[in-house]
Amino acid sequence: MFVMHNSTAHSRSHNGSIACGGRTCIERLARATTPHCPITSSVITATRAKTISMAAAAAAPTSNVVPVDTTLNPLVASVKPSKTMALTDLATSMKEAGIDVIGLAAGEPDFDTPAPIVEAGVAALRAGYTRYTPNTGTTALRKAICKKLQDDNGLSYSPDEVVVSNGAKQSIWQAVLATVSPGDEVIIPAPYWVSYTEMVRLANATPVVVPTTPEEGFLMSPEKLAATLTPRSRLLILCSPSNPTGAVYPKEHLEALARVVGAHPRLLVLSDEIYEYITYAPAKHVSFGALPGMWDRTLTVNGFSKAYAMTGWRLGYLAAPRIYAKAAAIIQSQSTSGASSISQQAALAALALGPGGGEPVQQMVRAFQERRDFVCARLRGIPGVNLAEPSGAFYVLPEMSAFFGPGAHADGFGPVPDSDTFCRYLIEKANVAVVPGDAFGADSCIRISYAASLETLGKALDRIAASLDPKIYKRRTGSS
Fold first, then answer.
1. CA–CA separation, 95 and 322 (whole Å)
2. pLDDT of residue 61
3. Rounded distance, CA 382 to CA 159, Å?
4. Residue 308: exposed, middle, or buried by beta-carbon count in 10 A (0-12, 13-18, 19+)?
5. Strand ordering across the sheet containing 395-396
6. Are 231 and 198 in contact (CB under 8 A)?
7. Kind of pairing between the strands at 233-239 and 268-272
8. Which residues are 435's β-sheet partners?
9. Which UniProt keywords apply (predicted)?
10. Angle, to 10 degrees, between the axis of helix 322-333 and the axis of helix 168-179?
């Protein structure tokens, strides 16, 4: 059985009174936010100014020491911080300060890791399984991953074509770094996971974003892909089921994309399948590398965080043709080396639960589907919301452009020109944290995670609906 955490927090100030959710309260949490995020930067200015003044006084020179050069690598300086992490951290800090905020920004299940997995981790600790493992992962785990990929996905790999890493994010980063060169183009359908574009920039390559719409089901068409290709195209990143849209590519659609991919002389595909098990019938997950002619071109990334509720265990993997797997292994050997020995033992227990994660995972999936249905029904009840129903993962990405832009205005808050400001309005006035769509390349949308109890989701949606009441909220000029 799995245990669901109730994420609703009690609201009280230090003197026992109800704490407000407005700007004054959030300013107290400035030190927990990032100055690069527009949502949070507006609330930290006063605190930052005082802090800088104090730091300057403390750092006053006492000798003739030459000031140090604090220049950053231009590649790092160009990278944007993750808004999902910034908002999740802000919501956590607000809760710790006694503010009754509901955080729907995090990308992780709210369930406990299934008991057999936890017990395997505890047993590994007690057995002294606490030393370094081989760089690419234990042989036992890599063999088990190969079996899983064959049985579940129709993908045939040998253990030396699998690299186990500290989370799927590391696997993706190493796959990008191993395959693209400066000046190469990486095609990324939007809306996209926040880190894809930044990883590409860190690799000194160029992200080429291909927009999709709710009317298209947030699926990139083969025609759009073909129109995007150039001689510099090197990598296509596909995420199915998708973060942030929940879209699942049907097999026929993937086959049409594969025909375009196969006609290009150097195009590879990074298939991010971390949400594989979290799909809702009639949708079915299909691995891109299992399509005819695509094995040689595909680097498949998966992991344990989402399906098995193992986000804190930090374990993912890359499966790819030997030349790419070896390159990723070299990168890992000179950065983090092997993943946690305890987590790898726990992962063996996770894979032993059976196809689709077995009953423990399927219980979570049924709960996610119930929540999806609830959230979609509630959002459709708000005039002006345009919603493509997700077929997987645990996010909805409603199109909300009727609520921001020219003429949009909230009483006691001011103009609402974009999704950033709209989400700042929700966290300040409704005490609900969601993520602005511009973080995903879709400024007309917001992302809501439904990895929370139905009670918490109902309370959050009540607050959102109340904050958009026409009596206090004026929608964008021209919106119907």
1. 47
2. 56
3. 51
4. buried
5. 395-396, 446-449, 435-436
6. no
7. parallel
8. 447
9. Aminotransferase, Pyridoxal phosphate, Transferase
10. 110
Phi/psi zone of residue 293: left (φ > 0), alpha (ψ -120 to 50 degrees), beta? left
Whole-angstrom CA distances from 247 to 27, 212, 279, 377, 397 are: 37, 11, 9, 17, 10
pLDDT along the chain (480 residues), means of 10: 39 39 43 46 43 51 83 86 78 87 91 98 98 98 98 98 98 98 97 96 96 96 98 98 98 98 98 98 97 98 98 98 98 97 98 96 98 98 94 97 95 95 93 94 96 97 96 87
Cα dihedral 455, 458, 460, 463 sign: negative
**Letter string b/e over residues 320-336, b meaning 16 or more CB atoms within 10 A of that residue's CB:** bbeebbebbbebbeeee
How far is residue 130's CA from residue 139's CA, in Å, rounded to a whole number?
16
Cα separation, 13 vs 206, whole angstroms: 48
Residue 258 near residue 296 (C-beta atoms within 8 A): no
3-class secondary-structure state, position 480: coil
Computed over its alpha carbons, how large is the radius of gyration of the chain? 23
What sections of 203-337 are H helices per DSSP? 222-228, 251-262, 322-333
Which structural domains are found in the chain, ordered by start?
A: 23-56+72-111+360-474 (3.90.1150.10), 115-357 (3.40.640.10)
Full-model pTM: 0.85
Residues 6+ positions from 449 with CB-CB distance below 8 Å: 104, 105, 106, 107, 394, 395, 434
Q: How far apart are CA 115 and CA 278, in angstroms?
A: 19
